[in-house]
Design a protein that fits this description.
Nucleotidyltransferase, domain 5, five-stranded mixed beta sheet, alpha/beta
Length: about 270
């Protein structure tokens, strides 16, 4: 089962995103492992968090939840939650040791009530890690830009992310499904599937460059962090299209968890 007993320093972080659940396992301040799972039903959560959790897992959970994560949840360590999906947050309230992070827990000035907790945590973590002005580009379901400097939120932007744009055309216009793991298409494509991928991919890359260059005009010594599920894919394309800009970007897949870790350190 991987984990047979927990130390007192064991805790879990759960970032509830629009499309998936993002998990991290910590021992004190050491990040041990991360996982992504689908959103879970209230029945599945009740099964996973029961003190009497039995293995093997029920069939409906075996492919959804990694065994090691299930073992940890069954032993009920502290669970820190940061969520942008209220109904999924509610599902986890029956777990006996939850602590939900809200904007008030993050010492970032100038935020607004509907600012996503994921964006606030990530940009606060970035400014803390690099001790510089920071722009965070989160390539998830939405592609977001979030800037901060000296503990002050400075604004940002939101647009549909790569996968969401591709799915929207596939689902609403009966156009071909696209595999984003294939090589980048030529810009001037000669059939429909490549034309869709070209239009979406190169427009996103150009947008990233435009926002990043505008930010760097204001803060030339700024850190730029790229995070989220499509961060590695987009960074590879940025290296090919805009290599000079790519050298100024750090891929930081665990950034939101580092923000949650900092909140825990300050408040618990």
């Amino acid at each position: 089962m991987g984990v047979t007993s927990l130390s007192e320093s064991t805790w879990l972080a759960l970032a509830i995103g629009n499309s998936r659940l993002h998990w991290a396992w910590f021992e004190d301040d050491t990040l041990k492992q991360t996982w992504d799972t689908p959103h879970l039903s209230i029945e599945a959560i009740a099964t996973l968090t029961a003190p009497s959790l039995q293995f093997p897992l029920p069939e409906n959970l075996q492919n959804a939840v990694p065994l090691q994560l299930a073992s940890l949840l069954g032993q009920q360590p502290l669970l820190l939650i940061a969520s942008v999906v209220p109904n999924q947050t509610t599902f986890w309230q029956s777990y006996p040791k939850t602590w939900t992070i809200c904007l008030d827990h993050i010492p970032l000035r100038g935020t607004y009530p509907t600012l996503g907790i994921d964006r606030a945590l990530a940009v606060w973590a970035a400014t803390t890690i690099w001790n510089l002005p920071a722009l965070v580009i989160d390539a998830g379901t939405a592609l977001t830009f979030t800037g901060a400097n000296e503990g002050q939120f400075l604004g940002g932007a939101i647009l549909p992310g790569l996968q969401l744009q591709l799915r929207s055309l596939t689902q609403t216009a009966a156009l071909p499904f696209l595999d984003t793991q294939i090589a980048a298409p030529t810009r001037w494509a000669t059939h429909t599937a490549d034309a869709i991928y070209s239009g979406i991919l190169y427009t996103l890359l150009a947008g990233i460059r435009d926002f990043a260059e505008d930010w760097l005009e204001k803060f030339p010594k700024s850190a730029i962090a790229l995070t989220g599920g499509d961060s590695t894919l987009l960074f590879t394309h940025l290296q090919q299209r805009f290599p000079n800009l790519a050298t100024q970007i750090d891929v930081a897949p665990a950034l939101i968890f580092q923000g949650m870790q900092a909140v825990k350190r300050q408040h618990l």
